C-alpha cells in the first residue's frame, strides 16, 4: 500500500511542531516548507525516521505559482504525490484601520491569504487530476470575530475562510475535501491580540469554560482526523476549536479561581 504524503505550508510556525509530530507518528511522509536552513531540521528528521516517516525540507515561495510548481515536481519525484495540503500560515501584527500602513497590510494579506490561494490552486489541480485529496486550512476564530488589535489579520483570515468555501464547492466535484479549523486562544494570545479598545483577551483563560487553553497538539489531532478516511463526508466545514471561548458573555461569571486558590492546568 503506497504511503501517504502531507505538505505543511509553514513548518516553522507554532502549529508546525504539533502537526509534524502527529503525522510523523501516524505513518505519513512529510514535506515541510521552511525558511530555516536544512541543518536546523536534523533532529526532526531523525525523530520522523525513527517513527518510520520520510521527511523532505523545502523552501518554496508560497506566493509564487511557478516556485510551488517546481517544488512540487521535485517533491513528488522523491516522496510521491501529495495527499493532504495543510495551509497553516498565520502572520499576526498589530494594525488598526486608522493607522495601518500599506506595507504591513500587504505583508499580512500575502502571507496569510495570497499564499493560501496559490497553494490551493497549485495542489488542487494535481489532486483534481487524480480525483482525490484533502485541503486543511488552519484559520482563526477571528475570521469573523474582530480582534480590536489587528484588523488586517482578521481580514486575511476572513479571506481564507471564503476561499475554503469556494474551494470546497469547486474541488469537491473532483473528490477533494476542503475544511477549515478556526483556532481559538493559545498561550500568548493575550499578548498577540493586546488591544486598547477591546477587552476580549482580558483574563482570556477564564473565558474558556474549562479554563484550558488550546495547544498545537489539539490542532494536530483535529487536522489528522480531517486528513483521514474517517472524515470522508466532511467537506466545506468550519470547525471551531476554541474550548468554548466565543460562548463567553459575562465577565463576572468567569470560572476564575477563588482568591488565594491556585489551579493547575
Please characterize this protein's 3D structure.
With 265 residues, the protein is of the alpha/beta class. The chain is built from 7 helices and 7 strands, in the order βαβαβαβαβαβααβ. A 7-stranded parallel β-sheet has the order 3-2-1-4-5-6-7, sandwiched between helices. It is globular and about 60 Å long. The relative contact order is 0.13. The model has no long low-confidence stretch (mean pLDDT 95).
Specify the biggest β-sheet.
Answer: 7 strands, parallel
Structural class: alpha/beta
CATH class term: Alpha Beta
Number of helical segments with 4 or more residues: 7
Number of domains: 1
CATH fold category name? Rossmann fold
Mean pLDDT: 95
Q: Which word captures the global form? A: globular
Helix-residue proportion:
25-40%
What's the alpha carbon Rg, rounded to whole Å?
19 Å
* Full CATH superfamily name: NAD(P)-binding Rossmann-like Domain
Number of strands: 7
Distance N to C terminus: 41 Å
**Approximate strand percentage:** 5-15%
Family: Belongs to the short-chain dehydrogenases/reductases (SDR) family.
Pfam families: adh_short_C2
Protein name: NAD(P)-dependent dehydrogenase (Short-subunit alcohol dehydrogenase family)
GO molecular function: oxidoreductase activity
Amino acid at each position: 500500500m503506497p504511503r501517504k504524503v502531507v505538505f505543511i505550508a509553514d513548518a516553522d510556525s507554532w502549529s508546525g511542531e504539533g502537526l509534524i509530530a502527529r503525522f510523523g507518528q501516524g505513518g505519513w511522509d512529510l514535506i515541510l516548507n521552511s525558511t530555516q536552513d536544512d541543518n536546523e531540521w536534523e533532529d526532526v528528521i531523525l525523530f520522523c525516521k525513527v517513527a518510520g516517516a520520510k521527511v523532505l525540507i523545502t523552501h518554496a515561495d508560497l506566493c509564487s505559482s511557478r516556485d510551488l510548481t517546481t517544488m512540487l515536481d521535485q517533491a513528488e519525484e522523491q516522496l510521491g504525490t501529495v495527499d493532504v495540503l495543510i495551509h497553516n500560515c498565520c502572520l499576526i501584527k498589530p494594525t488598526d484601520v486608522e493607522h495601518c500602513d500599506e506595507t504591513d497590510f500587504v505583508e499580512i494579506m500575502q502571507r496569510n491569504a495570497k499564499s493560501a490561494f496559490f497553494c490551493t490552486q497549485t495542489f488542487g489541480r494535481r489532486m483534481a487530476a487524480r480525483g482525490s485529496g484533502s485541503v486543511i486550512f488552519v484559520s482563526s476564530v477571528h475570521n469573523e470575530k474582530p480582534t480590536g488589535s489587528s484588523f488586517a489579520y482578521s481580514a486575511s483570515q476572513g479571506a481564507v475562510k471564503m476561499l475554503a468555501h469556494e474551494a470546497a464547492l469547486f474541488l469537491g466535484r473532483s473528490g477533494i475535501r476542503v475544511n477549515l479549523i478556526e483556532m481559538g486562544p493559545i498561550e500568548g494570545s493575550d499578548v498577540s491580540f493586546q488591544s486598547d479598545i477591546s477587552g476580549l483577551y482580558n483574563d482570556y483563560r477564564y473565558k474558556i469554560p474549562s479554563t484550558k487553553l488550546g495547544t498545537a497538539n489539539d490542532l494536530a489531532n483535529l487536522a489528522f482526523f480531517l486528513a483521514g478516511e474517517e472524515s470522508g463526508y466532511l467537506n466545506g466545514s468550519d470547525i471551531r476549536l476554541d474550548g468554548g471561548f466565543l460562548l463567553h458573555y459575562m465577565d463576572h461569571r468567569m470560572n476564575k479561581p477563588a482568591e488565594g486558590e491556585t489551579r493547575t492546568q
